[in-house]
Design brief:
By secondary structure, the protein is mainly alpha-helical. The protein contains three helices and no strands.
Length: 144
């Protein structure tokens, strides 16, 4: 605290005479008794001690705030890393499923194709004789 702040403090401690019904002598006595401890070295030392204590309180509050901010930052980084790992795991699982199912789809399609080819062969062999007879009939028949 500066000396000018102390003198301002002195002015604030002096009671105002405008709203007071005290006599001027009483005001002078009150003013003198209020200003005496502030004027002495004990008052300045008290104010300096109070200022140092306030600085310590502010400093400890800043340190606590900094500690909390660091803790929150560390916690946020851990949560982000865990979330990132979960997403990566999910992605790898989906990639492996799609790759595995792709091979499975190829096998399934090959089996279906073989089944359809076999069905067509069976159907063609069943009507093979009828198709040959129909072709021979059309070739040997003369239209007049």
């Amino acid at each position: 605290m500066k000396l000018s702040d102390i003198s301002n403090l002195n002015l604030q401690l002096i009671p105002s005479t405008g709203n007071c019904s005290a006599s001027p002598d009483e005001v002078t006595q009150t003013t003198t008794s209020v200003m005496d401890p502030v004027r002495g070295h004990g008052g300045i030392h008290t104010l300096l001690a109070a200022e140092q204590e306030a600085q310590q309180i502010v400093s400890s509050a800043r340190n606590l705030k900094t500690g909390r901010l660091k803790q929150a930052k560390d916690e946020a980084e851990r949560e982000a890393a865990a979330y990132r790992a979960a997403l990566e795991e999910d992605y790898q699982r989906k990639v492996s499923e799609s790759t595995g199912s792709s091979g499975w789809n190829v096998k399934r399609l090959e089996k279906e194709t073989e089944t359809k080819i076999q069905n067509l062969k069976n159907a063609s062999s069943a009507i093979h004789a009828d198709v040959i007879n129909m072709l021979l009939k059309h070739v040997t028949t003369v239209q007049t």
